[in-house]
Prior knowledge:
By secondary structure, the chain is mainly alpha-helical.
Amino acid sequence: MKSNYLKALGPGILFASTCIGVSHLVQSTRAGADYGFTLVWAILLANLFKYPFFEYGARYANATGTTLLDGYKKLGKWVLGIYAGITLGSMFFVIAAVGAVTAGFLQNLFNIQFNLFGFDPFFSTVLIAFGASAIILLLGKYKVLDGMIKVIGAVLLLSTLMAFCLTLGSGPVTQADSFVPKDLWTSGNVLFLIALMGWMPTAVDLSVWTSLWSVERIKQTGYHPKMKESLFDFNFGYIVSAILSICFVTLGAYLLFGSGKPVEPSSAKFANQVVELYTQSMGSWSYYLIAIAAFAIMFGTCIAVLDGYARSISKTSALLIGKKENKKSYSLWLLFSAVGGILLIYYFLVYLKGVDPEASKKGFKGLVDIATSISFIIAPVVAVANFILVSKKQIGENAPPTWLRILSYLGILFLVGFSIFYFIGPSMLPE
C-alpha cells in the first residue's frame, strides 16, 4: 500500500515547488514586510477558493488518463483556443518574473560579477540560469525534474519551518519611531493585493500542468494510481504550499515590518535580503545553507515553469492542428518560451536602465506584479472550464463531492469579483 502512494508521489510536489517560487519567496515576504499580518486574510482566501480548480487537474487526469487540455478539446476547439490565447498572452511575463528571481538568488549565492557576451553581471546570470534550465530539460525532461524537486523541496521546507519557529520565539523586530504603516486601500497599493492573490498559491491556469505531470508520472512508473492516491499526492503538496505561505509572511512581518528597512527593488539585493531574514532567526552559520536552499528551490521552480509551458503549449498546438505531439515540438516551444522570458527581462531590467533609471529600479517589482496580475484576471475562465470537466457527465463516479462543488461556485464568484475589482476598484480609491 505504501509503495503505491510513493509511486503516485511527484506531481503534487512539483506543484508545490512551482508555488513556493515567486508567490511565496517574493510576494508573501513583501506582504509581511510592507503590511505586517494585514494581508493574511487574502492569502488564506486565495488558497481556499482556488483549491478546487487545482485539485480538478489531478482528479481529471486520474479519472480519464488524459490531461485537462484533452478535456478542453472535448468541450470544443474554441475552449482550447481560449486557453492557448491565455497562455501565450501571459507565459512570457511569468517566465520572466520567475527567471529574474532565480537569477537574483544565483547571483547572490555565487557573487557573480563577470560580463557574459558583453552584458552586465545580472543579465549574464539570467542567461546562465535559463541556459542551465533548458539543457537539463532537453537532456532529462520529467525524470530529472521530479527527482530534483523532491530533494530541494524537502531542504527548503525544513529550513523554513525552523526559521519560522525561531522567529516566533524571538518576537517581532522593534518598530522604528518614524514608522508609518502603509495604507493598503489606495489606488496604487491595492494593485499589490491583486498581484498577491494572482499567484497565491499560483496561477489557476497552471492547473493544466498538474494534469500533464500526473499523466507523465503514470507513464514513468507504469502504475495508474487509485483516485485517493493521486489526491493524497496533490493535497500533500497543496497543504505544504499553504503552510509555507504563512511562514514567509511571518518572516517578513516579524523581521522587516516597521524596521525602517525597505524591501529591495532589485532581484539580487532582494535575494540577499530574504536569505538574511533566515540568518536573523537561525544565526550567521546558516547563511550559505539557506542561500543554497533558496536558490535551489527557485532554480527548480524555473525549470518546472519552463517545462510546464513547453509541455502545455506543445500539446495544445498539436491538439489544435490535429497532429500527434512529438519531442521536437516540446524542444522548440521550450527554447521559444525561454528566449521570450529573457527578452522581457532584458527590456525591464537592462534596457530601461539606460533609458529611465528610475523606472528600471522598479523593474523587478513591476515585472512580478504584471505577471501575477495577468494571472488573476484570466483565472475565472480556466476555473469554469475545469469545473465543467469534472462533472458527472464527464467523469462519472469520480466527480467531486457536494462540498467541493459548493466551494467551486464560491471560488468562481470570488475570482470573478476580484477580477472586476481590478478594473474598477483602484479608480474608486484615493491615490
